[in-house]
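Re: [ENG-882] Designed sequences occasionally contain unexpected residues at chain ends

Forwarding the minimal case from QA. Structure tokens:
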């Protein structure tokens, strides 16, 4: 399968997905989400079967998610939205948190849920939780 990883940065989660997807025999390309036109061009040139977005700070352009299935990996439980979700959970001291994979649609972090997992929150820095619980 041809998969385009669309990410704001090549962070731990993006790297982990890249390795896992390649090990499973997929053809994977990575594009940094720097501008909607760059995303459009990447999709047009690479022609992926699937776009996976493990770390985004803005919505995928409508014409992209309408043309190819786009799955967003969100570091939060279902219903939680926005790019600073994990920050809020840490500040509020929640006992449990999660990761949700949802399909892109017209609202940011609000499409149909494809899979979700929860984990107990520990008192730690955001970077540690992101690198460990979220990425695992």
């Amino acid at each position: 399968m041809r998969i385009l990883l669309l990410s704001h940065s090549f962070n731990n989660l993006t790297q982990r997905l890249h390795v896992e997807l390649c090990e499973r025999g997929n053809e994977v390309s990575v594009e940094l989400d720097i501008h909607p036109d760059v995303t459009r061009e990447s999709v047009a040139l690479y022609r992926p079967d699937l776009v996976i977005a493990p770390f985004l700070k803005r919505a995928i352009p409508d014409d992209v998610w309408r043309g190819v299935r786009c799955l967003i990996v969100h570091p939060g439980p279902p219903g939680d939205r926005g790019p600073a979700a994990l920050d809020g959970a840490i500040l509020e001291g929640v006992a449990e948190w999660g990761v949700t994979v949802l399909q892109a649609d017209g609202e940011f972090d609000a499409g149909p849920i494809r899979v979700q997992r929860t984990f107990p929150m520990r008192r730690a820095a955001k970077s540690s939780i992101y690198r460990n619980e979220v990425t695992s």
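QA comment: On inspection the terminal residues look reasonable. The two ends are 22 Å apart (CA to CA). Proposing we downgrade this to a documentation issue.
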